[in-house]
Write a structure and sequence with these properties.
binds zinc ion, 239 residues, 9 strands, alpha/beta, TIM Barrel
């Protein structure tokens, strides 16, 4: 009887542990008629904006990847938790929005691991994607970061113009199957643009998925130290 109870406990633990990232990603099955893209939001969380974006994502059954800043996530834990519970992905954007290109190795390690610890504390899971601040990177950072570097091929420049119309045009004029789109969830105008963009893109046959889902749907397994600009399988997309 004792052994049976132990066995039961073991089975429960295994089942519990297996409900991780793999299951979250594998629930998307590729439909050839759908064009998959990934919206990515940097520099948050910031509750007033992040939650508004999450409301829209939830309404249209869409997901996105949030590259969070660790010390902000400590303040706004609830919206990180909510994003994760909606199936969104949480990525690492350093602990203090540090420029790690050219930084000392121990600074790189500290900034990455402190942010990763915050993510683990909130979601129960370690992230495997990293977005360098300002997109700045070099070979040293690539080798030290221990995660896939996720860049983008559609830049909305939302942080510079604060215009929802300009963000909408940047996306609609440049988006293609497999795109990774850069936005920031500190901007109210970005939340506004999402409220128009997401239903419009959904109607055009796009589905918004996380970066990990986007890559895997296109047969790409993200590898530590490699850079990804989009998920179209061409040599220029990965380096
Ligand atoms: Zn940033």
């Amino acid at each position: 009887m004792k052994y049976f109870k132990l066995l039961l406990l073991f089975v429960i633990i295994v089942l519990f542990c297996s409900c991780g990232a793999e299951d979250r990603v594998s629930d998307v099955e590729k439909n050839e008629k759908i064009r998959y893209v990934a919206f990515t939001f940097d520099d948050g969380p910031y509750t007033p904006v992040t939650n508004r974006i999450l409301d829209t994502l939830e309404k249209y059954n869409a997901r996105a990847t949030f590259f969070i800043v660790g010390n902000r996530a400590e303040i706004y834990q609830d919206c990180v938790k909510r994003a994760y519970s909606l199936g969104c992905e949480i990525g690492n954007h350093t602990y203090s929005h540090a420029d790690l290109c050219g930084a000392k190795k121990d600074t790189v390690e500290k900034e990455i691991s402190k942010c990763s610890d915050v993510i683990l504390k909130i979601t129960g899971e370690r992230e495997n994607l990293f977005r360098p601040t300002g997109g700045k990177n070099n070979k040293t950072l690539q080798s030290e970061v221990g995660r896939a570097l996720i860049l983008w091929n559609v830049d909305t420049k939302d942080w510079s113009h604060h215009s929802s119309d300009k963000t909408i045009s940047a996306v609609l004029d440049n988006i293609t199957d497999g795109s990774i789109i850069l936005m920031h969830d500190l901007e109210v105008s970005t939340a506004e643009s999402c409220e128009k963009l997401i239903p419009q893109l959904t109607e055009q046959g796009y589905q918004l998925v996380t970066v990990s889902e986007l890559l895997r749907l296109n047969g790409i397994e993200p590898e530590a130290g490699k850079k990804y600009y989009n998920a179209i399988q061409s040599r220029s997309a990965i380096s």
